[in-house]
Amino acid sequence: MERVLAYLQEVKYYGKAVLLSLEAPGVAAEAVPGQFVQVLCGRDSPRVLRRPFSIFSAKAGRILLLSKVVGKGTSWLAELKAGEQVDLIGPLGRGFAMDEGDRPALVAGGAGIAPLHFLAERLMERRTEPSLYWGLDLGEEFGELPALLGKRFRLFMCSRDGCLGERGTVVEALAREKEPEFNAVYACGPREMLGALAKEIKGANLPFQLSLEERMACGVGACQGCAVPIRSARPAYSRVCKDGPVFRFEEIDWRAYFGGS
Amino acid sequence: MVDLRVNLAGIELPNPVLMASGVFGTGTEYRELLEVGRLGGIISKAVTLEPCPGNPPPRIWETPCGMLNSIGLQNKGLEAFLEEDLPALLSHGIPIIANVAGFSEEEYLEVARRLDGIGEIRGIELNISCPNVARGGIHFGAEASSVVNLVARVREVYNGVLLVKLSPQVYDIGEIARAAVEGGADALSLVNTFPGMAVDVETWKPRLASVTGGLSGPAIHPLAVRAVWEVAQVVNRPILAMGGISGWEQAVEMLLVGATAVAVGTAIFTDPLTPLGILEGLENYLERMGIASPEELKGKIRL
Ligand SMILES: Cc1cc2nc3c(=O)[nH]c(=O)nc-3n(C[C@H](O)[C@H](O)[C@H](O)COP(=O)(O)OP(=O)(O)OC[C@H]3O[C@@H](n4cnc5c(N)ncnc54)[C@H](O)[C@@H]3O)c2cc1C
Ligand SMILES: Cc1cc2nc3c(=O)[nH]c(=O)nc-3n(C[C@H](O)[C@H](O)[C@H](O)COP(=O)(O)O)c2cc1C
Ligand code: FES
Question: Which of these, B279, B264, B276, lies nearest to B36 by C-alpha position?
């Protein structure tokens, strides 16, 4: 882990998202799929809290971050120009365990593609070809990115509006597969998606890892801000930033996670 | 030559910039981001007698120039604190103060009693000001009579340096400070967070699962300066000041209105080098002003 002022080499725009290519040799060398960085958003009077972003790719001294614009911090990021510097801390958290099965399914919702893209790259390097399922709300949300990824990976696209790939959610698409081709599942996406996915594959007894999101303050495990309820005899929480963001399905208290505390 | 050492009610601090309770863990979490050993000291996260799970998430929300938190005193309990956290805190070689909390008077007393005599802990900061628990916390700190009573009982069982951490959310903070001193406090620590709340206008739900939380960060700085100022005028005890300190100027402000030392909270999240930046800034400032020690700034505001 280190804090760096990373030189922004390139910015690419994909629909409502930007892909930032940052020079951060230390972070890139250390990063494993599922880990994230904490980015300071704003320059003169920055946002008080850094924003967490999963590492989309890390190689040759660079990391890529894919940020979907949803609010103030991500809007600021989207306006950055190549040549500027970005203050970031990373790599942070616990990443994916990668030796779970030789036919993994990677299930992403929206910007949840980021850690799974990195995972897919690393799996391919290990000669494991994953199946990547990526669901979007709107087919055009990530511009040309799905088409580009389709050239490199075995990719199944779904969109709720039906404008790209199959109409519907990724979980519905997975459920339609009669003979599941996979023997391990990795997922990242919105809460509802993870809930539906958990229901869908609960009985299958597959190794199942998920990357969770929670609002963060420190990002390094010091403040207990990013609590996620875990299964235990009495109420207990783990930290998404340090114990996660990747958890095994069995670790989480899903009932508490989805509302009831 | 500037000498940054200060004495906080008998605690010799290498310099007057500490880390506030609840934001710094055991310091080991930050070891790769700053030289922890250069800090003036660390105040631990609240320690309760039994393990406390804390509040359900979300616990964090960013506000203009600040943040709300509702951690709810999550900690491993006294036993695990002594076994796991204390050695980690001590590993940095700087003064450690334990933040003590409870859900009942008995709990405060028991924790204080068990910490008494542990020489490596340089003092305790009695947290009678946490806004994030339904029982205890702020409820002990809201009325002068209950403050005198609780502090006096803790005083009986704890012989080390006793700091009492005050809530800013009281009608007259000077009166509460006087009550803490009457009870036997050696020093006062202020401010804790201000109770606050935020609502999501799309879902009509509160931003925090616990509905309300504590506001901290630059947004509360002027409120904290005033609180320190009020207290400094009515009690003759050293003050450890905190609230929105994010640069050396804010630290100096606190000293000028009467603080002996300061603690950094929320600002560490924005920039982990904040406390060291404050230290350097303070040193340069004192040099520029021709002042030998931060203690010479104490209460020197010109009215
Ligand atoms: C471990 C982790 C990895 C992430 N990776 C990515 C990624 O690779 N790409 C990406 O686009 N996004 C990612 N996110 C989500 C991203 O952090 C948020 O979208 C971002 O913080 C929003 O900042 P903002 O200032 O634009 O939004 P704000 O103005 O702060 O809020 C806008 C909305 O975003 C939500 N939000 C704010 N902070 C967070 C947060 N920390 N986590 C989740 N939601 C939040 C708010 O609830 C609100 O609804 C990740 C989140 C986590 C926890
Ligand atoms: C995430 C978080 C956790 C905190 N936990 C505690 C705590 O356990 N005990 C306590 O006395 N104060 C706690 N505080 C209050 C801080 O120590 C400090 O008094 C307050 O945040 C004001 O300083 P700041 O504006 O610099 O953050 C906490 C604050 C934050 C932001
Ligand atoms: S954000 Fe502070 S512990 Fe996770």
Answer: B276
Cα dihedral sign for B245, B250, B256, B257? negative
Nearest-CA distance B270 → chain A (Å)? 5
**Is A217 close to B67, i.e. CB distance below 8 A?**
yes
Question: Three-state SS for A195?
Answer: helix
For the Cβ of A218 lying below 6 angstroms from any atom of ligand 3, the answer is yes
Residues 6+ apart with CB under 8 A from A198: A208, A249, A254
DSSP-derived 3-state class of residue B253 = helix
- Helix ranges restricted to H, chain A: 25-30, 72-78, 113-125, 145-152, 170-176, 191-201, 254-257
Min Cα distance A177 → chain B (Å) is 35
- Asked if residue B98 has its Cβ within 6 Å of ligand 2, the reply is no
- Rounded to the nearest angstrom, the distance between the alpha carbon of B25 and the centre of ligand 3 is 10
The CATH architecture of the domain made up of B6-55+71-200+216-297 is Alpha-Beta Barrel (3.20)
Q: What angle do CA B154, B158, B163 make, to 5 degrees?
A: 70
Q: What is the CATH number of domain A2-92?
A: 2.40.30.10
User: Which residues in chain A are classed under CATH 2.10.240.10?
Assistant: 214-261
Q: Give B162 to chain A, closest Cα distance, Å.
A: 24
- Per-residue pLDDT reduced to its tens digit, B274-292: 999 999 999 999 999 999 9
- Within an 8 Å CB–CB cutoff, is residue A216 touching chain B? yes
Classify the complex by whether its ipTM is higher than 0.85, answering yes or no. yes
In chain A, ranges of CATH 2.40.30.10 domains = 2-92
How far is the C-alpha of B297 from the C-alpha of B130, rounded, in Å? 30
Question: What are the sequence ranges of the domains in chain B?
Answer: 6-55+71-200+216-297
Interface of A with B in 133-172 (CB under 8 A): none
* Per-residue pLDDT tens over the stretch A86-101: 999 999 999 999 988 8
Interface probe, candidates A44, A49, A253, chain B, greatest B C-beta count within 10 A: A49
B155 CA to centre of ligand 2 in angstroms: 24
Cβ atoms B48, B111 nearer than 8 A: yes
Write out the residue limits of the CATH 3.40.50.80 domain(s) in chain A. Answer: 96-207
- CA B81 / ligand 3 centre spacing (Å): 18
Which CATH class for the A96-207 domain? alpha beta
**CATH 3.10.129.10 describes domain A214-261:** no
Token pair of A115 as six digits: 């850690």
Q: What is the pLDDT of residues A123-177, one digit of tens each?
A: 999 999 999 999 999 999 999 999 999 999 999 999 999 999 999 999 988 888 7
A215 to B61: CB separation less than 8 angstroms, yes or no? yes
To which H or E segment does residue A66 belong? strand A62-68
Query: Which DSSP state fits B166?
Result: P
